[in-house]
């Protein structure tokens, strides 16, 4: 016949072991969630770069019935800007990125009817683009990459220098090539690149500025990225 005290001790020990196993299983389940989340975060990086913005000039016939055959030249100013990029890299040859670019410069129009000299429109140019990015094999501590995509650029005339014109969005296409390197840590690195963006020259909805010409901007850049 079993001793009641021994039976009680056995039951207590069994309950203790079950409790320990339950806590251990719960802790393991909770540990799995951060591990899975971390695996996704390891694929994400956030970069901030300073860029030079070198705009290409364009010339065309004004698409305005009140000025038939008039020739207009747009010579945008060059400036410095910023580029913010968020990337999600599944594997070296498969990645995706979102870009936000900002710069301010003056669109200089020559040949505007009734306006001698240059008609200037100061604008903020804001780029919003999505793209595909592929990283190549590391070479001498640097990892080359190529990217390309599309989106839009919003040309917003400034309050004081925008001639009272309206904001205009233009479809934008871009490519970029560059290289990046980490500073001994997988979470922090340096990135240099060259980008070129293509879009139709803005006219801010004014027919006397419309020439329907495509143009582009060249954007060499350098900056840093953080990988989560």
**Topology as a string of helices (H) and strands (E):** HEEEEEEEEEE
Mean pLDDT: 87
Q: Briefly note the structural class of the backbone.
A: alpha+beta
- What is the approximate shape? elongated
pLDDT < 50 runs, ≥5 residues: 13-23
Task: Give the count of structural domains.
Answer: 2
Helix content: 10-25%
CATH topology of the largest domain: Porin
Helical segment tally? 1
CATH class of the largest domain: Mainly Beta
What is the total tally of β strands?
10
Straight-line N-to-C gap: 63 Å
Largest sheet: 8 strands, antiparallel, barrel
Backbone CA Rg? 29 Å
Beta-strand percent range? over 45%
Detailed description of the structure:
With 228 residues, this protein is α+β, with helices and mostly antiparallel strands. The protein folds into two domains: 1-41; 43-227, Porin, CATH 2.40.160.20. The chain has one helix spanning 4-41, and strands spanning 44-55, 58-61, 71-74, 79-91, 94-110, 118-135, 143-157, 168-182, 188-200, 214-227. An eight-stranded antiparallel barrel has the order 1-4-5-6-7-8-9-10. The chain is elongated.
Question: What are the salient characteristics of this protein?
Answer:
228 residues, alpha+beta, Porin, 8-stranded antiparallel beta barrel, 1 helix, 10 strands
């Amino acid at each position: 016949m079993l001793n009641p005290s021994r039976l009680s001790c056995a039951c207590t020990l069994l309950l203790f072991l079950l409790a320990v196993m339950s806590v251990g299983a719960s802790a393991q389940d909770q540990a799995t969630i951060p591990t899975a989340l971390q695996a996704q975060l390891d694929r994400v990086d956030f970069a901030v770069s300073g860029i030079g913005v070198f705009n290409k000039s364009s010339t065309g016939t004004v698409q305005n019935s009140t000025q038939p055959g008039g020739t207009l030249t747009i010579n945008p100013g060059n400036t410095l800007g910023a580029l913010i990029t968020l990337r999600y890299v599944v594997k070296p040859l498969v990645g995706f990125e979102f870009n936000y670019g900002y710069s301010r410069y003056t669109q200089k129009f020559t040949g505007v009817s009734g306006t001698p000299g240059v008609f200037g429109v100061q604008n903020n140019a804001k780029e919003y683009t999505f793209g595909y990015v592929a990283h190549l094999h590391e070479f001498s501590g640097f990892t080359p990459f190529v990217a390309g995509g599309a989106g839009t650029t919003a040309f917003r005339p400034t309050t004081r220098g925008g001639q009272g014109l309206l904001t205009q969005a233009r479809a934008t296409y871009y490519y970029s090539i560059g290289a990046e390197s980490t500073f001994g840590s997988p979470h922090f690195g340096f990135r240099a690149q060259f980008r070129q963006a293509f879009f139709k020259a803005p006219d801010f909805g004014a027919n006397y500025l419309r020439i329907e010409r495509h143009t582009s901007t060249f954007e060499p850049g350098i900056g840093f990225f953080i990988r989560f």
